[in-house]
Amino acid sequence: MNLKPKENNYFAPLLSIINTQSSRLMIIVAALWALTTSLDKIGAKNSSPLVFSAALYFCTALMMLPIVVVFSPNWFFQLRTNFSKLVLLGSLKAVDMWCHVTAVGLTVAANSVAVRQTSLLMGVGFGYLIFKEKNIKTRLFGSAIMVLGICLLTFAHY
Q: How far apart, in whole angstroms, are the C-alpha atoms of residue 128 and residue 150?
């Protein structure tokens, strides 16, 4: 959020959207995520969350296979040597997607995504613990503001 209360620069987050390429790209990501979440809701309503999740990832895997084969000459060896890790990772992602599509199907899609985004606090914490990022107080403050906004949006609906 680039919020620096000591500098009284409260418009820094808004200026960052204009001046910083990474902020502009994140706005595009948020818009795409909003679009795909709406499609997830349609898929969950017209099918079941489990079938929709499985079909979505199966089709994605089929579309990615030619790209992997062309750009990774030793893809089969890598698949064979890392198979157990890939099965674990794929299983965890499958559970994640199933929970996401189930939640989106049961509630307002925006609320489901908002609650899911509270994981940003974990991301800030891991950034500090694992990558030794600086300015942890400023980052936590910005994250807390975003989580407060998420709570306000979620509870305003009810």
A: 23
Only one residue has tokens 């305003």, namely: 156
User: Is the CB of residue 109 less than 8 Å from the CB of residue 40?
Assistant: yes
Polymer length of the chain: 158
**52-101: per-residue pLDDT in tens?**
988 988 898 899 999 999 998 888 998 899 999 999 998 898 888 888 88
Tell me the whole-structure pTM to 2 decimals.
Answer: 0.63
**Residue 76 to residues 64, 69, 81, 86, 156: CA-CA distances in angstroms?**
14, 8, 9, 13, 51
Cα–Cα distance measured from residue 31 to residue 37, given in angstroms and rounded to the nearest whole number: 10
Q: Alpha carbon 94 to chain centroid distance?
A: 14
Predicted confidence at residue 11, as pLDDT, reads: 75
Distance CA 152, CA 129 (A): 29
Dist CA 13 CA 19 (whole Å): 10
Coil/strand/helix, residue 72: coil
Across residues 119-138, what is the average pLDDT? 84
Report the DSSP beta bridge partners of residue 4.
9
For the chain, the first-to-last Cα distance in angstroms comes to: 28
Give me 38's structure tokens.
């709406």
